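Ticket 4471: requesting a sanity check on a complex prediction with S-adenosylmethionine. Repro inputs:
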Amino acid sequence: MNFDRLAKVYGPLEAVTAGGKLQRCRVALLDAIPVPRRVLLAGEGHGRFLPECVRRFPNARIVVVDASTAMLDVARARLVGLSGDAAARIEFVHADVSEWEDAGGGFDLIVTQFFLDCFGADALVAVVARLGALATPDAHWLVADFQIAPGGWARWRSRVIVDLLYRFFRIVCGIEADRLVLPDAALEMAGFARHKRLTSEWGLLKSEWWRRG
Ligand SMILES: C[S@@+](CC[C@H](N)C(=O)[O-])C[C@H]1O[C@@H](n2cnc3c(N)ncnc32)[C@H](O)[C@@H]1O
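Returned structure tokens:
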């Protein structure tokens, strides 16, 4: 899987196809969660969430891990104009999050946005378990992602959109997954329970807050 070739156009593509809908989904629960000390943004890509996180949590240390250097460059560029101390609180790491080792003592907030949907069933369990191992016993986890709406025409609509997205990302980025796998069981296995859930776009988008302990 390689998102490098998409990095520069990912933001414009999102703006054209979804307007502000994905961003609203990303930040929907940001004001609801407790203030964290250390935040892990896994697969943060083009960094739309990062400046919001920096502003909302002015004392938190934030680690951004992504497997694409080009995506990390785009995310880094978003910090221009933020206050001087922000850069000192943020670390950008080019790594596969399944293999990356953290030396910082655990994260009390994990954020995965439109990231877990890149993985097939087995890889998803492994990635969630790995992220869970990086989380503190009292950690919170924000998930924003696509989902298949529960019924009616909205279900049909979401299936068509999600299917098109998988075709696109498989061809352009070589993602391994060919269908959406819910991360719920993997999150529960990692010791998290869903605390809050919002849906939007006729059930196509979900914003979830999971927590441990
Ligand atoms: C679909 S993009 C999502 C970007 C962003 N989080 C968003 O909200 O739109 C998935 C991102 O996950 C990254 N990624 C995929 N597999 C990864 C892995 N194993 N470890 C770290 N990053 C990964 C990709 O490089 C890409 O930037």
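Notes from triage: The chain has one domain: 4-212. Leaving this open until the requester confirms.
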